[in-house]
């Protein structure tokens, strides 16, 4: 079944009135509830008085990078490497799913300019983009899209552990440097003594950034 037609389950922190939305995408193999619980274990109960927090769960699919095991992943990749070619069809399919999720928020009265999520290729005009311990392939379609369509006025915030042994920090830095060379504005924050994980200080700073934007 096409991922675009699959069920994307979400958990949400909502308020009596929401004027903005943050869509927090979990890492490969995790789930929306899983990352939400992880955050709460680090910083305690969290909420924003006017911001809805969505933690969607990626569709379950065969993950080539893990020998074809079924995993909750946003898109399939051949290997965890900057040099690997992207699975463009897989990325396009999940892009369709994410667009539908964003459209639901817009239909509920939240303007696109008050939504924060990981983007740059499928959704232009967002308030902000953040990435935690992430990277783009060296020849990513995102870079091509920015060259062709131009760079949106959407700030980027990236965090990366200096001791990350799954996604080396140099991959994150290279991704950030390539994006900024194309005109993206933002900040890259290195986290000392940090593996491929979330840290309390990282989340506190991220939430402060969200509050200031929204």
Automatic annotation (TrEMBL):
Query: GO molecular function: any one?
Result: palmitoyl-(protein) hydrolase activity
The first-level EC class reads: hydrolase
**Pfam families attached here?**
Abhydrolase_2
* CC terms in the record's Gene Ontology section: cytoplasm
The reply on keyword Thylakoid is no
Stretches assigned to the Phospholipase/carboxylesterase/thioesterase domain = 10-212
- Official protein name in the record: palmitoyl-protein hydrolase
Q: Which UniProt keywords apply?
A: Hydrolase
The taxonomic lineage of its organism, from the top, reads: Eukaryota, Metazoa, Ecdysozoa, Arthropoda, Hexapoda
Q: Which family does it belong to?
A: Belongs to the AB hydrolase superfamily. AB hydrolase 2 family.
Q: Does the keyword Hydrolase apply?
A: yes
Documented EC number(s)? 3.1.2.22
Q: Output the superkingdom of the source species.
A: Eukaryota
